[in-house]
Amino acid sequence: MNGLALYRGLTGIAAPIIDAYLRRRLAQGKEHPLRFSERQGIASLPRPKNPLLWLHAASIGEAQSALALVRRMLAADEHLNILVTTGTITSAELLETRLPKRSFHQFVPVDRLPWVRRFLDHWRPDLALWVESEFWPNLVIETQNRGIPVVLVNGRMSERSFANWHRAPGVIRTMLQGFTLCFAQTESEAQRLTALGARDVKYRGNLKFSAAPLPFDKDELASLQASLAERPVWLAASTHPGEETLVADVHTSLRESFPGLLTIIVPRHPRRGTDIALDLAGRGLAIGQRSERTAISPEDEIHIGDTLGDLGLYYRLTDVVFIGGSMGGHGGHNPLEAAQLDCAIIHGPDMANFLTVAEQLAVANGAVRTIDGQTLMSAVHRLLTDSVERTRQAGAAKEVARANSNVVDSIFCDLSSHISTICGQQ
């Protein structure tokens, strides 16, 4: 039995286990209670009559990077509609407010053949785009088997994933050879995708470079700026467990040097806000949560931004930003969002998810790399103290973002013939 047949057999046999797992996720608040059936391939919306392009983005980061491409493709033909699928509640909430007209969201079906086939039977996409690297074998191959052109956009293939896929070479080769066209994030990843069996692999740059600046509410920003007055402030963005403690220790070390210091923590997963607040309050720190009150009190030492979609607000509120997920095990998060908004960037040693970006920032002296709490504290201290260096570093980072902002146009240029074909068929 080959690897694909084994996988399909296991996902069939494991149906009761998969059902129990999904029900547990639902009970934990990790699945949408009103749209749970979408995970079983049951659509909650009708299919548009006009040409339909399906774009799959695993989670919030991939969805955010794909928005610029979605807008570009919709602008190319007034008859085109775009279905965007993701697998997380946070990405669904983000897309609900940011998807333009003629585009809409559904949750991706779990990778069981009956659910995948039900999904495809309903939506019948004319073209499918896969963003980054979430290769679900049943979903990918079933789409390809129906003669639907499939394109990989902003494809990722890390060294770890490359090594893991070598254990199932038949499965990955079957999937990759079914992609009509592949756009890789980096030249190294283009080489790995080719080695695993992908055809017609192109490197046009990282699509995340072309993402529009994160949105914000002008009145909210003015209100927060007024509440801060002249307080020194820095931000830890998209943090993961363990990093909040590190950030709190930095705050404690710096508060005597910077009277009135405010540290803002925006956790990657907002639902963790209350747990973070309780933990840090237990350390004797005065905590405020945005989910509890939007104002920042003069007594607050740490403000937790535990509401979805407000990161653009916080990037505009401060000049010094630590990029979370970078202290190990998570691969870091997108520093370009901060670079676009004039922030001086600090990140940890683990930027595997944005390696090329981190390298470009390093060459331009547009970011500070830290390795632990002590070096993080020193970096924050220096940037809060030295306004000239802070401005220079922020400017260098912004130039890196600006110089690569045309990636979406390059990718769209290669995709335009596919879009013209499906729209011309109607």
Give the key terms.
about 425 residues, alpha/beta, Rossmann fold, 2 domains, seven-stranded parallel β-sheet
Describe it.
The protein has helices at residues 3-13, 15-27, 60-76, 89-98, 113-123, 137-145, 159-165, 169-177, 187-195, 218-228, 243-254, 273-281, 311-315, 336-339, 355-363, 373-385, 387-403, 407-424; strands at residues 52-57, 81-86, 103-107, 127-131, 150-155, 181-184, 201-203, 233-239, 262-267, 287-289, 302-304, 320-323, 344-347, 367-369. By secondary structure, it is of the alpha/beta class. It folds into two domains: 3-206 and 406-424, 3-Deoxy-D-manno-octulosonic-acid transferase, N-terminal domain (Rossmann fold); 218-403, Glycogen Phosphorylase B (Rossmann fold). A seven-stranded parallel β-sheet has the order 3-2-1-4-5-6-7, sandwiched between helices. Helix 6 packs across helix 8. It is globular.
